[in-house]
Structure formats: C-alpha cells, structure tokens
Design brief:
The protein has nine helices and seven strands, in the order αββααβααβαβααβαβ. The protein is of the alpha/beta class. It folds into two domains: 199 residues, 3-Layer(aba) Sandwich (Uracil-DNA Glycosylase, subunit E); 37 residues, no CATH class. α6 links the parallel β4 and β5. The radius of gyration is 18 Å and the shape is globular. The mean pLDDT is 96.
C-alpha cells in the first residue's frame, strides 16, 4: 500500500526561508522553546492552496512531527475546512516559529525582525497566488495578519478574512470544569459559524462540492477530521497521525519539563 507524504521544502522561496530563519536575537529563549527548533508549516506550498490558516505556535506533537497543527486543534480545523469543501487545497503557518514558553512580551511581538520574517512567508503564500480565504486562530494569529495587512505588498491582495477563537481554547479556559467547557465550546462554535459564513461565499474553487452546514452547540459527528497522510513527512508511523497523548512534556519541575518530551507508543500497537 503506497503512503503519500509531504516532500518538504523543495522550491524557492521556501528553501531560503527555511535556511535563514530567526533565532535567539529575535525569539528570546525566556519566551520561546528555541531548544526544540522552528516548525514552519503544514499543507501545500505549490501555489494550489485556496485557504490559508494562521495558527499560534507549535506544541510538543508538532515538535516531533515537524509540521504544525497536527494534534486536536489541527483535526478540528480540518473539520472546518471540510465544511468549506477544502480537503487538500490549504496551507497552515503559525504566528510564531517556536513553541511559546510562558508568555510573549509586547516588545517581542512587535519586533521588526520577527514580523518581517513572518511577512515573507505570507508574501510567498499570498502574492501572485490563488488563496481565496484566510482563517486566523486566536489573538496572536489575528495580530500577525493585521501586521501583514499594513504592508505595501498586502494592498493589492483582495482575500476574505475571518478571525476565530483558537480551537482548543475551551479546554484551556475551563480547566476541567465540564459546565464551563460546554459553555466555552458553544461560544467557540458560534465564532466558527460566523467565520464559515464569511469565508464560504469567497471560496469558489473547492476540492469537493459541499453544501454549507453550520456547527451545533457542541462538537458533532464529522466536526473533527483526520489530517491527511500527505501532510506529514515520509515514514511517519500511523499512530502519530491519530489521537493526542503520545507526546507529553514530563519532569519534576518547569526546567525538566522544558527539556523533556516523552513519547509513548499507544496501547495496541505493540503486542
């Protein structure tokens, strides 16, 4: 059985962008986990993307896989794209190349070198290409878009845009309280429904003709969609494509957790 895969960064300007990325002088180690390296993207870099998704920063699963939004947040966004009829023609980048450690200071967020490098990615994906809609996940992503929109290169780009609540915000904000989780999920899905109605009229070139069906008040069947194998590097084991939980930051204190990612093959894989 053949296994499709992402062949990586094989053409310009992405070869140069990946070879010349900002490091500690732009991303302070006190605010980012530079020790795990930058994670650049997921999806199509060949100009075929019709929807661009801007996320926030990579987590531990992304650190291992070397692609962004491959966990629960990614599967929820795949479901959003599927509602637009987009199953392949998309590309993801993050507001930040490195995993955030603690918080990001305003001075760092507004650093010209950080913004300029990210804008080079946005220029490469948007200028002269056929993206019809842009989706921003959370505040950092929305800010990244606004910085780019203020540039000269952006003035000639007419593309639909929607900013939504980050996919896993309900879990992070509710802290295990089921009532709060249900309320936060309902609010998130209301935000996502507005975004669907904003983007859908502008995404004309779909992969699969799909009538628009909005979300309910909680996650339903089909709202989470598996990430295609073709988005991952070659040879990645199948269980890394599936549920979260196989990669965790572990240790007795914050420093140990920063230094350690424990990978566990799920039950049932090894007998």
């Amino acid at each position: 059985m053949p296994h499709p895969f992402d062949s990586g960064y094989v053409a310009e300007p992405f070869l140069t962008l990946c070879a010349n990325y900002p490091e500690a002088s732009v991303y302070p180690p006190g605010q980012f986990r530079l020790e795990w390296g930058p994670i650049f993207h997921r999806g199509r870099l060949d100009g075929s993307a019709r929807v661009l998704v801007i996320g926030q920063d990579p987590a531990q699963h992304e650190t291992v896989v070397r692609r962004i939004l491959v966990g629960e947040a990614g599967r929820r966004v795949q479901g959003f794209l599927a509602k637009l009829g987009i199953t392949r023609s998309y590309v993801f980048i993050n507001a930040y190349l490195y995993s955030v450690y603690g918080g990001v200071k305003a001075q760092t967020r507004k650093a010209p070198a950080l913004i300029d490098y990210r804008n080079r990615w946005l220029n490469a994906l948007l200028v002269g290409h056929q993206v019809e809609g842009v989706l921003a996940l959370g505040q950092a992503a929305n800010e990244a878009w606004q910085f780019w929109k203020a540039t000269p290169a952006a003035q000639s780009i007419n593309v639909a845009y929607a900013a939504v609540t980050h996919p896993t915000q309900p879990e992070s904000s509710s802290k295990g309280d089921k009532t709060k989780l249900a309320a936060a999920t309902k609010k998130l899905l209301q935000s996502w429904n507005v975004a669907l109605q904003t983007l859908s009229p502008h995404v004309h070139h779909t992969d699969v003709p799909t009538p628009l069906v909005l979300y309910g008040e909680s996650w339903g069947d089909g709202d989470r969609v598996a990430i295609p194998e073709s988005d991952f590097p070659a040879g990645l084991p199948a269980w890394m494509h599936e549920q979260d939980g196989w990669a965790k930051r572990t240790g007795e204190n914050d420093l140990a957790k920063r230094r350690t990612i424990t990978i566990t093959v799920p039950k049932g894989i090894v007998t």
